[in-house]
Amino acid sequence: MNQSAYATAGVDIEAGDRAVELMKAHVARTNRHEVLGGLGGFAGFFDAAAFKDYDHPVLATSTDGVGTKVAIAQAMDKHDTIGFDLIGMLVDDLVVAGAEPLFVTDYIACGKVVPERIAAIVQGIANACVAAGCSLIGGETAEHPGLLGPDEYDIAGATTGVVEKSKILGAHRVRVGDAVIGMASSGLHSNGYSLVRHVLLQQAGWSLDRHVDDLGRTLGEELLEPTKVYALDVLDLIRNVEVHAMSHVTGGGLANNLARVMPDDHTAVLQRSSWTPPSIFRLVQQLGEVSQPDIDATLNMGVGMVAMVPQSEVDAALRLLNGRGVQSWVLGGVQAVEGPGAAVLV
């Protein structure tokens, strides 16, 4: 049988169809009752009638990717966890404003569609959507021969959530005296991998299958550790404890991200002595001879999410979060200063 002109150019439509069939069961597991229709249409549908219970519903949206962490997944030929990195980057940017993530759409660009690999990626995305309580209602898989190698791919996505206008969290709620609560990250999450790969794989010359005693596992296993998805934990916190503002610690590090939700004339003073960053952060800093300011501004240093609450709510907040398995502690407090809002590590 002669190949089609498109197949001759490197695009396999039949492989794409096979990938869709393999991912259908994974996508179906994410469906909330508001989702209309199934996979395969031109658009995903979400029934907005659910918003009738809101006095003033406000939609929130976020879009992101996972950066060069995909290079680790490709090198290890393990693709069923990278979806947690994508969903974590998306939904946890919504929940810090108090919004409930509703649905996600994803985009996978690859050099060659390998149905089983695409299905594994979507399986991870779907697992993370279940963990976040949102639906995967659509997506796109694009084959780009000549632009990406046969084993190369990149993923991105977008999410939409909803929040009652009067309950939006942010700098306008922060008060002097608020406690800053830190929530432990699961590791590097999905930021700073260009630095991490440069230091560990290029400068130090370590291989991904190298067992690192300080990590208790191979380097590759550590670097591929999925991003912690905080969405349901944070939403439970917001429902049960007075929360003024939150920050998702991603690119830019802890202080820079926290400064984004600090009002003028307020600063969050964070105590370095309140926690010990996991070993992977120390390894990157030492092997790469990275200065403290540089590493603070690049990696999360073991803190993936931050909440600001009144002092009277600290015990309840810690009890709830730790009870849900989210390691949490008092990271610092909010003080009055002159000038723009800021956060500092001391």
From TrEMBL:
Query: Under which name does UniProt file this protein?
Result: Phosphoribosylformylglycinamidine cyclo-ligase
Per the record, the pathway is: Purine metabolism; IMP biosynthesis via de novo pathway; 5-amino-1-(5-phospho-D-ribosyl)imidazole from N(2)-formyl-N(1)-(5-phospho-D-ribosyl)glycinamide: step 2/2
Supply the EC number(s).
6.3.3.1
Domain PurM-like N-terminal, which positions? 47-163
Top-rank taxon of the source lineage equals Bacteria
Record field: catalytic activity: 2-formamido-N(1)-(5-O-phospho-beta-D-ribosyl)acetamidine + ATP = 5-amino-1-(5-phospho-beta-D-ribosyl)imidazole + ADP + phosphate + H(+)
Species of provenance: Tessaracoccus lubricantis
Keywords per UniProt? ATP-binding, Cytoplasm, Ligase, Nucleotide-binding, Purine biosynthesis
Membership in a protein family: Belongs to the AIR synthase family.
**Where found, per UniProt?**
Cytoplasm
Q: List the InterPro entries.
A: PurM-like_C_dom, PurM-like_C_sf, PurM-like_N, PurM-like_N_sf, PurM_cligase
Gene field: purM
Where the record annotates domain PurM-like C-terminal, the positions are: 175-339
